[in-house]
Design the sequence.
C-alpha cells in the first residue's frame, strides 16, 4: 500500500480517512458502521485510558461494570431520555439460533423470542440508576462516585472511523449526590478534568462552555462541554458532562434520608469521553505526511534506525543502539530499535513519519566514529546532528518541547480562528471563507438557533463559561442579547 | 444487612452467593443472568487485568479491539464452531424503536429489520479471522500476536454470579503463525502464563493438562487447560488455550507466502480467562467469616482502625495513622485509614473481615504510649501486639507470608484431594464421600467418558501434562489404558 496521502488542502475528509487506515489506527469491519481498532490505534487509546483513569481515581471515583443489555421498558421511564436514545439502537429480540430444516444454514429460532426486547446500551443511565435504588438509602451512602469503561452502540446511519461509529468505546461516569450544589460542583469538576486532559495530554486547546437547551443531553438540566477546533475549521465536541437534576432519581425512585431525617430524591451527574477523541487527536495535529502525535500519548516516543552496509557496521551500531534503549527506558522514555534487516532505512523513515513517532534517531558508521547521531523531529520535520553525550537528557527535553510546541501551534491556529461578527452577512461570509469559531449575539431562542442551523449548517457549540457581559443584537432577529455565543460547523 | 454468613458446611452454594453479595463484589441486575460488578469486586478484577496484561505484553502481545456484533453467516463458516457457539446467543434483529400509535409506549419498528441478523459475540474467532485475511499476506506479517479485553454474551439458562453469567468480561488472545510447531509453542506458552498467574497472584494451585476430544473448544484441534480445586471438592476450569490448527484460516481463507515462496494457510491459537476467575478466587480461600484475599490482588492490603473515646485521643491516633499511611504508600502497600466517626470499631472489624482485607491494624491511646499496635491477620484470624518500629517492613514481610500461606494451604488441600482409584466402585465411593480430583484409568473413548459422566456427573477435567506412563485397565470397561486421567465433578 502506498504511504502517500491525499493532501489536506485537496480533500480534508479523504486525507483523514487515509491517515486513520494507513497509520494502522483503525479500519472498517464486515459489520456496517463498526470499526476494528488496530494495535497501534489501540495503544494510543490505552494511553488515554490510563491517564483519564488516573485522573478519575484521583478525584475520588471508582470503577464498576453494569450490564450491556437494558430492558426496553427502562428507557420509557425518563421521558426526554427515551426520545433521545431509544430510537436508533440495536434491539435483541431472540436468544437462540438453530439449523434450518430445509438446509438453509442457521436461522433464528422463533421459539426463542424474548418476552421483553433488550436494547444494547447506547448509554447506561437507566440500568445504573436501577441499581442505585438498591445502593442508596441514607446520606451516608452519598456521594456515590462511579465510572464505567464500556462499549456502547448507537445505530448511526452515516459513520466515519472514530468520529461516528455504530459501536464505540468510552467511559461513562455516573454520580449521585445529596444536594444540588454538590452535583453541579461535580459536573464542573469533571469538565475541568476533561479540559486538563485535552490540553495537557492531547495538546488540544478547548473552549469550556454550556450547551443551549436544544443541544443538551436527553434527560439533562444542563450540559457542559469542551469544544475543540479541527484544522479544517470545523468544531469537535470532545467531552460532555451533564447535570441531571433529580430526573433519573425520580424515574427510578431513588430516595435518601438526609442528615436531618428528611426523605428526598438524589441529585445526579453523568459524563463521558469516547474513542471519538482519537479522531480529534488525528485532526488537531497531523499533516500531509501522516500522523503527528503528542509525546505524552505516543506509543513509541523515539525510534532508532541503523544506517549500515556491512555486518560489522550493523553489529557496532546495534551495540550502541541497545545501550541507548536501556538508558532511555530507565528515564521512562518509550523507545523502539528497529533492527529489521528486511527493510531499508528510507522505508523505515517513511513508516515512522506516517505513524507520527515524535523523534527519530538515525545512526551510521560515521556517527559512531564522531560520537554523534542524527535526530529528526516529526512536528517540525527538521533534522540535526547532535552529540551522543547526555542523549537521554536531550531526548527528554525535546519530548517536552514537542509536547509544548504542538499545543502552542494548535492554540495559535484556534485563536486565529475565533472571529467576532456583528451581522448575519458577516456571519455567513466568515463561515464560508474562513471557518472556525464565530462569536456572535443570539436572542436566546431555540427558533433562531434552528433557523441559523438550517440556513448555514452552523450550530451553537456552547455558551462559553468566560463569555463577557456585552449588550448586543441577535445577528438573525436583531433582538436584544447580553453575551456572545460560540457558533461553528461541527463534526 | 446482616454480615453473618451461612456456613460452608451447611450449604456451600448458599455461602458462596452470600459472600459475593455481602462482600460487595457483585449482584444480580434487572436483566436475566447478567450481573452488576460492584466497585470492590471490580477493583479486584482490575488488579487481575493489570497483571495479566503485563504478562501478555511481556510475551510480545498487543491489544486491539474488534466489533461486538458478528454477522450470522460468519458463524456458519467453521462447522464445529457454529455447533458449539451459535446456539444460545443474543440475536440482534432490529435497529430502531418507535412510539406505538396505540399509546402502548415504545415498540420495535418492524420497518427497521436487519437484512442479516447480528449475533452478540460469544467469542471472537470469526470476526477476528475475517480481519486477519486482510492483515496477513506474507511470512513477514507473522506471527500476529493480539489480545482483546472485551465483554461477551452466552445465553446461559442457569446462571450464578461470576461462575456462569449471560454476559461476562474476559480477554481473548488470537494469534496467527507460519508453522504448526510455532502455534503449538504459543499455546503451551500461554497455558504457562495462566498457570503462573493463578499460582503466583491468585495463590491458587492448578493442574495443567489437555482436554479430551469431547471437552475441546468448538473448532480446536487441542485444548489445554488449567484446573483448580474448590473447597467443596469440585473442580473449576480456570483458563483454556486452544491450538486451532488451520481451521479458521481455511474457513476465512487466510493464506500467506512463506519464506520459500509457497502459499499456505496460517496456523492459529486462541486463549482466554474471564471474570469466572473471581468466583474461583472466592471459593479457593474464603471462610465462614467472609472473603479471604491474597495480598497481591487485594484492593486494600492493610486497614487502620482507630480505637478512641475522646477527641484528643482521636486526633493523636489520626496523626500517627496518617504517618503510617504515608510510609506504607512509599513502599507500594495499599492502605486505608478508616477514620469514620459514624461507625464503631467492632462494626469496622466485621466489615473488613467480610471483605477479606489481609491485615488490620487497630491502634488505641495505650498503643500510642507504648509505641505498639494490634495487628490482625485475616488468613489465620490471629492477633498480636507489635512494635510500631519498622512497621512498614513488618507489614511488607507479613503480606508476603500471607500470600505464601494461602497458596500452601490451598496446595495442601488440593494435594490431599487427589485420589488414585482402580475400580469403578472405588471411583464412586471417593466421588460420593471425599470429592476432589480422582486419577483413574480410562480406555480413551468418548463413549466411556460419556457413560461415566451420565452415571456419576464426573467429567474428565484433563489428561495431566505430567501423567506418567502406567499400564492399567479402564475403570468402567476394563480395556487397556496407558495413563491415568483426572476426573472430578466440576463447576
Sequence:
Amino acid at each position: 500500500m502506498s504511504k502517500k496521502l491525499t493532501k489536506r488542502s485537496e480533500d480534508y475528509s479523504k486525507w483523514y480517512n487515509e491517515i486513520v487506515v494507513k497509520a494502522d489506527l483503525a479500519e472498517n469491519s464486515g459489520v456496517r458502521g463498526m470499526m476494528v481498532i488496530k494495535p497501534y490505534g489501540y495503544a494510543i487509546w490505552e494511553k488515554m485510558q490510563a491517564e483519564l483513569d488516573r485522573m478519575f481515581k484521583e478525584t475520588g471515583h471508582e470503577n464498576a461494570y453494569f450490564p450491556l443489555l437494558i430492558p426496553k421498558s427502562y428507557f420509557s421511564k425518563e421521558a426526554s431520555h427515551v426520545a433521545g436514545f431509544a430510537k436508533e439502537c440495536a434491539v435483541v429480540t431472540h436468544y437462540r439460533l438453530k439449523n434450518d430444516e430445509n438446509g438453509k444454514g442457521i436461522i433464528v429460532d422463533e421459539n426463542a423470542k424474548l418476552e421483553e426486547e433488550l436494547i444494547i446500551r447506547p448509554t447506561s443511565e437507566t440500568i445504573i440508576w436501577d441499581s442505585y435504588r438498591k445502593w442508596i438509602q441514607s446520606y451516608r451512602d452519598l456521594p456515590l462516585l462511579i465510572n464505567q469503561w464500556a462499549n456502547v452502540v448507537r445505530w448511526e446511519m452515516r459513520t466515519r472511523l472514530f468520529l461516528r461509529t455504530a459501536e464505540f468505546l468510552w467511559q461513562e461516569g455516573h454520580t449521585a449526590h445529596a444536594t444540588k450544589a454538590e452535583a453541579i460542583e461535580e459536573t464542573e469538576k469533571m469538565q475541568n478534568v476533561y479540559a486538563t486532559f485535552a490540553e495537557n495530554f492531547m495538546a488540544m486547546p478547548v473552549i469550556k462552555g454550556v450547551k443551549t437547551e436544544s443541544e443538551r443531553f436527553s434527560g439533562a438540566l444542563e450540559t457542559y462541554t469542551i469544544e475543540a477546533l479541527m484544522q479544517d475549521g470545523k468544531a469537535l465536541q470532545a467531552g460532555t458532562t451533564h447535570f441531571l437534576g433529580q430526573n433519573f432519581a425520580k424515574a427510578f425512585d431513588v430516595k435518601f434520608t438526609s442528615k436531618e431525617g428528611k426523605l428526598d430524591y438524589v441529585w445526579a451527574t453523568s459524563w463521558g469521553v469516547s474513542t471519538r477523541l482519537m479522531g480529534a487527536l488525528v485532526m488537531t495535529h497531523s499533516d500531509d505526511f501522516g500522523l503527528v502525535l503528542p509525546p505524552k500519548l505516543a506509543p513509541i516516543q523515539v525510534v532508532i534506525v541503523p544506517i549500515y552496509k556491512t555486518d560489522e557496521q550493523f553489529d557496532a551500531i546495534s551495540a550502541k543502539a541497545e545501550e541507548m534503549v536501556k538508558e532511555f527506558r530507565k528515564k521512562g522514555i518509550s523507545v523502539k530499535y528497529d533492527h529489521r534487516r528486511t527493510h531499508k532505512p528510507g522505508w523505515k523513515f517513511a513508516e515512522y513519519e506516517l505513524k507520527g513517532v515524535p523523534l527519530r534517531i538515525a545512526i551510521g558508521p560515521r556517527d559512531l566514529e564522531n560520537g554523534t547521531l542524527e535526530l529528526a523531529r516529526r512536528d517540525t520535520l527538521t533534522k540535526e546532528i547532535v552529540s551522543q553525550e547526555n542523549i537521554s537528557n536531550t531526548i527528554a527535553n525535546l519530548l517536552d518541547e514537542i509536547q509544548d510546541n504542538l499545543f502552542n501551534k494548535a492554540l495559535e491556529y484556534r485563536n486565529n480562528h475565533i472571529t467576532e461578527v456583528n451581522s448575519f452577512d458577516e456571519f455567513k461570509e466568515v463561515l464560508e471563507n474562513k471557518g472556525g469559531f464565530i462569536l456572535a449575539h443570539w436572542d436566546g431562542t431555540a427558533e433562531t438557533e434552528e433557523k441559523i442551523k438550517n440556513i448555514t449548517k452552523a450550530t451553537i457549540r456552547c455558551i462559553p463559561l468566560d463569555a463577557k457581559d456585552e449588550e448586543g443584537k441577535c445577528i438573525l432577529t436583531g433582538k436584544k442579547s447580553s453575551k456572545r455565543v460560540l457558533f461553528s460547523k461541527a463534526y
Notes: Residues 391-416 of chain B form the longest helix (26 residues).
